[in-house]
Amino acid sequence: MKKIITLFLTALVLIAPVAHSEGLLSSKGFDFLGSEPQLMPVDQAFVSDFKQEGNQLKINWVIADGYYMYRDKLKFEANGATIGEIALPQGKMHHDDYFGNQEVYTTYVDIPLALKSAQADSTLTVTFMGCAEGKLCFPPTKRSVTLEPVADNAGIVSQATQKQVQAENQAQGNASSVVSEQDSLSKMLSGNNMFWTLLIFFGLGVGLALTPCVFPMYPILSGIIVGQGQKLSTAKAFTLSMAYVQGMAITYSILGLIVASAGMKYQAALQHPAVLIGLAILFLILSLSMFGVYELQLPSRWQQKMNSVSNNQKGGNLIGVFMMGVISGLVASPCTSAPLSGALIYIAQSGNLLMGFLALYILSMGMGLPLLLIGTSGGKLLPRAGSWMNIIKTVFGFLLIAVSIVMISRIWPGAITDILWSVWAICLVGYFMHQNKLTEFNWKQTVRSVALILCLLASFSYGFQAAMSALGFQSYASTFNGQNTAPVDAPKFKLIKSVADVEAEVAAAKAAGKPVLIDFYADWCVACKEFENITFKDKQVQQRLSQYVLLKADVTKGDATDNALLEHYKVLGLPTLLLFNQQGVENNNLRITGFMGPEAFAKHLDVLLTK
Fold first, then answer.
1. What is the pTM assigned to this prediction?
2. At the topology level of CATH, where does 42-177 sit?
3. Does domain 494-609 have CATH number 3.40.47.10?
4. Is 595:338 a contact under the CB 8 Å cutoff?
């Protein structure tokens, strides 16, 4: 254990200079080791649009997160036209290192301008000046638009235009006031009070330990503890559990750094069928040791040497347990949550590799706390002798098989996985029925028999309905008495594949004046299916989604086109949902990463629908 802790502390020390290294490590192939975030070009940070209706001209800017535009630096010059009234909206007060207290625009601004007159082919040039928060200010930038002819008039901004612009600015202001959980967590990491920030991340990690992503780790660690075969002390159980959790936490953190810095294609590569099948076979082989097919231990010569060095019991050497933790980190890697995304966003934007790794590590240790408690208490709570010991080992063997099914479900979701779960449950219940017959005949045995028979019927029914559904037969429950009791269908999403597809659909939605929602999905993403089966089927959510253009990007294959799409929109994990406003611009504050329940999701959708 001392060796593991020493190696870990050494790694932390080595990361610090690497995080700030230059030269070879700052080449394109190692961009994630750089320390400086990339600044957006001015054309991308400040996207402008002009719309003329008679003598009324509306100029709007969509401003990227972390950037702002000075209100008093705006200048309007006309060539062949005469400018009338300009209704500059109020900005936000901002203390600037360059100009002191200034009014600035952030996120979005719509400026109405009236034209007194304009000749054919006349032009209007707008000069603006913007800055990147805490980094630099761009030089004054000009944007020009060709005007339509306008007859002489008073050049006053109409009240209708003012009300419309005020409503649009208010709607965008509401959207900008919404800060997604991952963004707020990312900002916390850049704050001053790092102790409380990391403590919060630890608490969030504990919460994540109750999610389906961490479920496979419980039988893996429990199988390691149960598989000792001899009386296990509390100290030994804690040492093995800590070695396992360290392997999981370090792997999970390193993978997070790679995904945040180099893109999601590395994470998607871990979900390749060959990798998942390999992991499924590994856990299946491990389960056989629980059934007594073989004894999981080192060769006797190696075991004697290991025992002399660390006094380890068979099957329980720290290196082997640590490696099982590493594998478990790979198992949990595709799972995305708001806390994880917050850390990834912070790494991607700040380039602070060391701080990002620390946040991910603390989050992982929070996830591992219940594992530590279960593993450490294993020596006290689990029976160590008699027939009960064999029953427990067999049960954990079934749980390891369940981990294999979880891996397979990422490749073949649906009927195949449902049938596998049905067979697994039937075998498990059958084993319990066999063990129940060996007990003393009394009323307790009878109650257990009835309960097990009901579980057996339920397991068979589950698999039977899945098989019938796969063959195209409708479930009897949906046709009983001629009543249609089928579940509510999820809203229909249009499948898109490339960046060009997205841009075309967003442009069409802009012309129709509708917002857009893009759902990034993969078959191996558990939370993606939760969105489909829970959130999207909610009636209140469906009512709001009917007002959106719904697009789905299925990136299960992880091919070059999928990777290009993920990198273009800086998607760091699945599920991720992007929301574009009626002007065809994504509102980053509304981006959703990780599962969100129906009520919160409905409020999220309302922001762009409120005008």
1. 0.49
2. Immunoglobulin-like (2.60.40)
3. no
4. no
